[in-house]
């Protein structure tokens, strides 16, 4: 019987049967590899959370933009120079295309200039902490509670931010916003990967990753029409009210429920999924029991207290953990290195931010296609090699403007594509009971890399060629690290450490 609306059920069934023949994934056989249920969840959960995450994490560009200043009240009788600090200055005048920024709001210039960048550092520190905390919560207590907590916290903190009455209130709020960004990014991705069949994960990975750069493309529209920092923050906070719907609509991952032995609950979620995908709904609890019995022995199936030490539970997992963290660290440095040049190609922040988002969408789309065709491992190695060559070309003389522009564009696309591919690769390298902890640990190491990257970029004080050389060598190390990882293309997701 054909379905009225939604994805083509015959196609889903055909793909699913191929999956089962190859991987014996009974859950995919029961609910469908990628049907109307998965698409609706992706559109209502992955897309809004990823777009909002981009706004919250990157919005500092428009909250604290480059701002010129000049002292207007001083005891000096000589002419006052612009962008010059005077010890007895009582008042500054600011020149920017925005009505008001946090720089002009709290006089973040001269001896207080460091405080503008410190807010973004706190946000990244929040992402680092949130990756660990929400990764643990998601694996210990479930994807649904972890995602609900992070979404609710983001809703509250983003509405507090525009009404901050002091700099430190704003800065501390940015820290908590950073923790929520980590939670929604990690938990959403794991949930969507766990309800998608092996042969459809590349497409789902693309659907889950593209909304982030799409949010980066849309963000300048808010900034263009809301040119005050508090109006802008309020504007990008209002869409988060949609998160309230998740309390009623967000399901738990059936794979996580089965891994925890909650077979009745898993059967209910699988029944709902089968109904939406127009598949048979009978005996879903029996299917869950069958999956649980085939995963591991009875003792292992009771493992519901997984912790970060389980990431080293076997030799294979230990290798995967070390390599994954290393690659994410390298991506943190490489992504910043590629963006270093693109961020300097235009003095117009609206155009620059939107352009960077478009370039990332292109890179993510290309690597998603390559993951489907040649596999995760070869795609990661290829992206790293091209990124290395592109970054090395940035060492050419400044007069070769177009060469540097093209190489910078290619570097940004490859770095973004490699990041997107590694999200999917990492989710496939680890079992259900430790998947979010693995992604959280890897993401944490990535933030350390991104924090170190500015110091690498600062090597221009030693020699102009040093930063491009460093940003070229680092991706090569990433490509070599990939050689130690197994290929996961088309493989069923493991549930337990064993």
Task: Describe the secondary-structure layout.
Layout: H1 9-23, H2 26-31, H3 36-58, H4 60-63, E1 68-73, E2 91-95, H5 102-105, H6 114-141, H7 143-160, H8 167-194, H9 201-209, H10 211-225, H11 229-237, H12 246-249, H13 254-259, H14 263-276, H15 284-295, H16 298-301, H17 315-342, H18 349-374, H19 376-393, H20 401-429, H21 435-457, H22 466-482
Antiparallel strand pairs: 1-2
Helix pairs in contact: 3-8, 3-9, 3-10, 6-7, 6-8, 6-21, 7-8, 8-9, 8-21, 9-18, 9-20, 10-18, 14-15, 17-20, 17-21, 17-22, 18-19, 18-20, 19-20, 19-22, 20-21
Beta-strand percent range:
under 5%
Please report the total strand number as a whole number: 2
CATH architecture field of the largest domain:
Up-down Bundle
Which term fits the overall shape? globular
Q: Figure out the total of helices.
A: 22
How is the main sheet built? 2 strands, antiparallel
Decide which structural class fits the backbone.
mainly alpha
Total number of distinct structural domains: 2
Helix share, percent:
55-70%
The separation of the N and C termini measures 40 Å
Membrane topology: Multi-pass membrane protein
GO molecular function: transmembrane transporter activity
Domain Major facilitator superfamily (MFS) profile: 59-490
InterPro entries: MFS_dom, MFS_sugar_transport-like, MFS_trans_sf
């Amino acid at each position: 019987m054909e379905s009225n609306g939604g994805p083509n059920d015959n196609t889903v069934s055909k793909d699913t049967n191929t999956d089962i023949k190859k991987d014996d994934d009974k859950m995919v056989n029961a609910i469908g590899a990628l049907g109307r249920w998965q698409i609706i969840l992706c559109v209502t959960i992955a897309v809004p959370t990823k777009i909002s995450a981009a706004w919250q994490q990157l919005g500092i560009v428009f909250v604290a933009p480059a701002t010129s200043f000049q002292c207007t009240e001083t005891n000096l009788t000589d002419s006052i120079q612009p962008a010059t600090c005077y010890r007895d200055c009582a008042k500054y005048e600011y020149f920017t295309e925005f009505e008001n920024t946090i720089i002009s709001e709290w006089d973040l210039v001269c001896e207080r200039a460091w405080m503008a960048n410190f807010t973004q550092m706190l946000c990244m520190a929040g992402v680092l902490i949130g990756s660990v905390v929400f990764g643990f919560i998601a694996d210990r207590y479930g994807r649904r509670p972890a995602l609900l907590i992070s979404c609710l916290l983001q809703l509250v903190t983003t509405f507090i931010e525009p009404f901050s009455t002091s700099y430190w209130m704003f800065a501390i709020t940015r820290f908590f916003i950073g923790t929520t960004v980590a939670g929604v990014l990690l938990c959403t991705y794991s949930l969507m990967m766990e309800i998608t069949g092996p042969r459809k994960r590349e497409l789902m990975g693309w659907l889950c990753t593209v909304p982030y750069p799409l949010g980066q493309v849309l963000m300048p529209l808010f900034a263009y029409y809301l040119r005050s920092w508090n109006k802008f923050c309020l504007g990008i906070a209002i869409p988060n009210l949609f998160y309230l719907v998740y309390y009623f609509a967000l399901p738990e991952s059936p794979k996580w429920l089965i891994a925890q032995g909650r077979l009745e609950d898993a059967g209910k979620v699988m029944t709902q999924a089968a109904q939406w995908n127009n598949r048979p709904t009978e005996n879903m609890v029996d299917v869950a029991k069958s999956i649980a019995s085939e995963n591991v022995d009875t003792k292992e199936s009771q493992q519901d207290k997984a912790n970060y030490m389980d990431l080293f539970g076997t030799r294979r997992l230990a290798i995967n953990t070390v390599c994954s963290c290393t690659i994410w660290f390298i991506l943190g440095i490489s992504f910043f290195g590629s963006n270093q040049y693109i961020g300097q190609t235009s003095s117009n922040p609206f155009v620059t931010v939107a352009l960077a988002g478009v370039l990332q969408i292109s890179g993510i789309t290309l690597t998603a296609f390559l993951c489907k065709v040649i596999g995760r491992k070869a795609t990661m190695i290829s992206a790293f090699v091209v990124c290395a060559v592109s970054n090395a070309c940035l060492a050419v003389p400044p007069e070769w403007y177009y060469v540097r522009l093209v190489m910078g564009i290619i570097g940004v696309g490859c770095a973004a594509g490699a990041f997107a591919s590694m999200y999917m690769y990492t989710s496939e390298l680890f079992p259900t009971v430790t998947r979010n902890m693995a992604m959280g640990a890897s993401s944490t190491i990535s933030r350390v890399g991104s924090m170190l990257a500015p110091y690498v970029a600062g090597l221009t004080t030693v020699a102009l060629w040093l930063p491009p050389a460093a940003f070229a060598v680092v991706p090569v190390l990433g490509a070599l690290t990939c050689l130690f990882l197994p290929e996961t293309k088309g493989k069923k997701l493991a549930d337990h450490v064993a």
